[in-house]
């Protein structure tokens, strides 16, 4: 879908997961607006089969703020371990450069995992082991630049239902399994 302005958008939609209660669709692609590299497009749409509506993450929870805080803590800790594993080692740069890398990384991670609605707007309800099984949890999706530099790409965090089960609305409690 090019135009005379030289903009290009590529999008790919895939059913990421299905459970008896939810269908999760993931969109990935890029839009090229003439910058240094294309802007990544990462989105997800979760369809609640019972209500027949698309839902946002907050719609799952009786106390969305508390749920987002629990998700944020889990995501931050998981991503910190993952990103620190890629930290430059002593000898791969000056001590100052390594300190600066860590400081910048922590700043991006802290900002990108704050428990705001926007930071947790892209998610998928994971599929269970069997077609009719409840979901074991959520996959949180963080587009490039949100929690880490562009080179790190999209980051995902699988959150087990046990992390957020107590915050679910009664209507959704049977749709997840906290095993």
Characterize the biggest β-sheet.
Answer: 4 strands, antiparallel
Instruction: Give the helix level as a range of percent.
Output: 10-25%
Give the N-terminus to C-terminus distance in angstroms. 45 Å
Which structural class best describes the helix and strand composition?
alpha+beta
Show unreliable segments. none
Bulk shape = globular
As a whole number of angstroms, the C-alpha radius of gyration is 18 Å
What is the string of SSEs from the N terminus onward? Answer: EEEEHHEEE
- What is the strand arrangement across the widest sheet? 1-2-3-4
Whole-number average pLDDT? 90
Tell me the fraction of residues in β-strands, as a range: 25-35%
Number of helices: 2
Query: Care to count the β-strands?
Result: 7
What does this protein look like?
By secondary structure, this protein is an alpha+beta fold. 22% of the residues lie in helices and 28% in strands. A 4-stranded antiparallel beta sheet has the order 1-2-3-4, with no helix packed on it. Helix 1 packs antiparallel against helix 2. The chain is globular.
Task: Give me a quick take on this structure.
This protein has about 180 residues and is an alpha+beta fold. Helices cover about 20% and strands about 30% of the residues.
């Amino acid at each position: 879908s090019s135009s005379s302005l030289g903009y290009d958008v590529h999008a790919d939609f895939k059913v990421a997961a299905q459970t008896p209660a939810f269908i999760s669709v993931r969109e990935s692609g890029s839009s090229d607006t003439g910058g240094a590299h294309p802007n990544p497009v990462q989105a997800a749409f979760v369809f609640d089969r019972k209500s027949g509506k698309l839902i946002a993450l907050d719609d799952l929870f009786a106390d969305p703020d508390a749920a987002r805080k629990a998700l944020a803590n889990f995501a931050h800790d998981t991503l910190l371990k993952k990103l620190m594993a890629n930290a430059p080692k002593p000898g791969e740069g000056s001590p100052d450069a390594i300190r600066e890398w860590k400081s910048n990384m922590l700043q991006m991670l802290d900002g990108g995992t704050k428990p705001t609605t926007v930071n947790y707007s892209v998610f998928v309800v994971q599929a269970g082991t069997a077609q009719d099984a409840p979901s074991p949890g959520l996959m949180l999706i963080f587009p490039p630049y949100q929690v880490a530099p562009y080179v790190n790409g999209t980051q995902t965090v699988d959150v087990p239902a046990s992390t957020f089960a107590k915050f679910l609305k009664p209507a959704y409690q049977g749709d997840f399994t906290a095993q």
